[in-house]
Specification:
Belongs to the glycosyl hydrolase 1 family. The chain is an alpha/beta fold. 40% of the residues lie in helices and 15% in strands. Helix 12 (289-301) packs parallel to helix 13 (318-337).
Length: 398
């Protein structure tokens, strides 16, 4: 058995993070309020998180030294516009320093403009479905011009809009927690609102620089129909996933994010078998998910280039992490060989971080000591980073 080189020249090879999950003390965001409100499903607040607001140079140094060529991180709307209509020059300069710092280290920055959190004032107005919300988001995107105008080739407008719509639906119904299989019904009004916000943001980003490639990312659930459940699966999947993929048809790329699968029977989602291996998030261990997600996204969106912007596993066993990535990358390579336009792979996550309510699910290629904030690259990080230099996937026959 020899090695093959399925990943083309210029292929994005990196890891992803999100501001609220790693920066710490994002006190002006809606999530900070939720974390400190009694009676929610949130187990613990984010507090200092990974302190990456101050330690981002260390994070980037480590990623670059490991061999990664790309780093996806987000800017925090609640920091940039903490009060409606007031844009912090200091925070814009902070994020611009991050862009420049990435470039200096040989990391190509992919900047996400919205990763789940919004300013408290935006939430108080009614969030995405409030009057004028699209225009407010577009104004914020335009204000980010100093951050993204030069040196940023890829911008993501909104991360996982389908999850935003799902969570909005839950909030309206007063639901707590997700079911053991599948996703709750998204709020239709929020679905339309975030799609409108995305399209407005795309225009603003292109106005900043026509050279920026702009898109958004979708949480792919890899819905698999059991025999006789094909129509049920299509009807279940469309409002939860496909409508958001379809909205990207005019974009420069679309982000594919997958972790596991959801099987659908005649009566709807079916939990994973009791004997299935599970991760720390209780998801079924299913490394081939990303291949299914890429192929389905391509079928829906057409000729738009694909980038895997999140894929990974929460585990305390780093050997299982490497095994998961090995299986996932084999699927990515096969998709490329079959002619899909896959332009990059960014793992989730660069660091152990705050996973929206708990620090327990360790997704990180890099471990974080929560007392000292010391970073330690796991063996999986060393292995995965080295592939960024060679663009070779060991064990695949030529």
């Amino acid at each position: 058995m020899t090695t093959s080189t399925p990943f083309p020249e210029g292929f994005l090879w990196g890891a992803s993070t999100a501001a609220h999950q790693i920066e710490g003390n994002n006190t002006d965001s809606d999530w900070w309020v939720k974390e400190h409100t009694a009676g929610t499903h949130i187990q613990e607040p984010s507090y200092d998180a990974c302190d990456s607001y101050h330690r981002w140079p260390e994070d980037m140094d480590l990623l670059a030294s490991l061999g990664f060529t790309d780093y996806r991180f987000s800017v925090e709307w609640a920091r940039i516009e903490p009060v409606e209509g007031h844009f912090s020059r200091a925070e814009l300069a902070h994020y611009r320093r991050m862009v420049e710092g990435a470039i200096e280290r040989g990391l190509r920055p992919m900047v996400t403009l919205h990763h789940f959190t919004v300013p408290q004032w935006f939430e108080a107005r009614g969030g995405w479905t409030a009057e004028g919300a699209t225009e407010l988001f577009a104004r914020y995107v335009a204000a980010c011009a100093p951050v993204i105008a030069t040196g940023v080739a890829h911008v993501c407008t909104i991360n996982e809009p389908n999850m935003i719509a799902v969570m909005a639906g839950q909030a309206k119904r007063g639901d707590i927690g997700f079911p053991p299989a599948g996703l709750p019904t998204p709020d239709e009004e929020t679905t339309h609102a975030v799609i409108a916000a995305h399209h407005a943001a795309v225009k603003e980003v292109r106005a900043v620089s026509p050279g920026i490639k702009v898109g958004w990312t979708v949480a792919n659930q890899v819905y698999q129909a059991l025999p006789g459940a094909e129509e049920v699966t299509a009807a279940y999947r469309h409002p939860r996933e496909d409508v958001f993929i379809e909205a990207a048809r005019g974009d420069d790329w679309i982000g594919v994010q997958s972790y596991t699968r959801t099987r659908i029977g005649p009566d709807g989602p079916i939990p994973a078998p009791a004997e299935a291996e599970r991760t720390l998030t209780e998801w079924e261990y299913y490394p081939t998910a990303v291949g299914h997600a890429l192929r389905h996204t391509a079928d829906v969106v057409g000729d738009v280039p694909l980038i895997v912007t999140e894929n990974g596993i929460a585990t305390a066993d780093d050997e299982r992490r490497t095994a998961y990535y090995t299986g996932a990358l084999g699927e990515v390579a096969a998709a490329i060989e079959d002619g899909l336009k896959v332009e990059g792979y960014l793992a989730w996550s660069a660091l152990d971080n705050y996973e929206w309510g708990s620090f327990r699910p360790t997704f990180g290629l890099i471990a974080v000591d929560w007392e000292t904030f010391e970073r330690t690259a796991r063996p999986s990080a060393v292995w995965l980073g080295s592939l960024g230099r060679t663009r070779e996937l060991p064990g695949r026959a030529v």
